[in-house]
Amino acid sequence: MKVKTILVSQPEPTAEHSPYTELEEKQKVKVDFVPFIHVEGVDAKHVRQQKINLADYTAIILTSRNSVDHFFRIAKEMRYEVPTSLKYFCTSEAVAYYLQKYVVYRKRKIYVGKRLVKDLIPTLKKFKKEKFLLPSSNMLKPTIPVQLNELGIDWKQGVFYKTVISDLSHLEHVFYDIVVFFSPSGIKSLFENFPNFKQNNTRIAVFGNSTNKEAERHGLKVNILAPTPEAPSMTMALENYIKEHNK
Question: What average pLDDT does this structure show over 1-12?
Fold first, then answer.
């Protein structure tokens, strides 16, 4: 079956020329964006209830742009002036560069991994005297606490924001040839909104093993999987699939 319409379960990219724009133009398909999950910040009172005093920490582990935004938001709510001596351990260059929204980058001690917390472990080992704070959502990957505990560092997780399932009722009678998922939460959102969802002729595209496992757990047939050696990005995986089926 040919592909004409694609639903991506994320917010629309803010960049003027995103890979999805190119996909639409080259393959003559329509791509829509609807976030299946969204983030809501918790208030400073909720953070204090977790027995977190920001002044107690000398280093911070940042795993996403959301963690950056909500750390500085809570600091502002608590009227805490973030010291220039605070060390930042970022899981990727994208997260590190995003810090520039809040701090003068060249004047801060910033350490960067390749993509995941495990990539930071060799660096974290060198700073065992620091006291680390990990601001996160309520849905932290279970492997992260295991990895940090094995390191033997002094650290604490703080829930600074929550991942919340979005209302998708407006999609009840709308059908797409492909629906794209990037997290297990997106799959859970689909079935919480539509408990009787039937895949029928809809093709499912997933990014990452955990998303793939969640799709299979809900009885979905995964037609497009990324990343792979042939398709390191989702847009490349979609393009390869469309080229094959729109001949």
Answer: 95
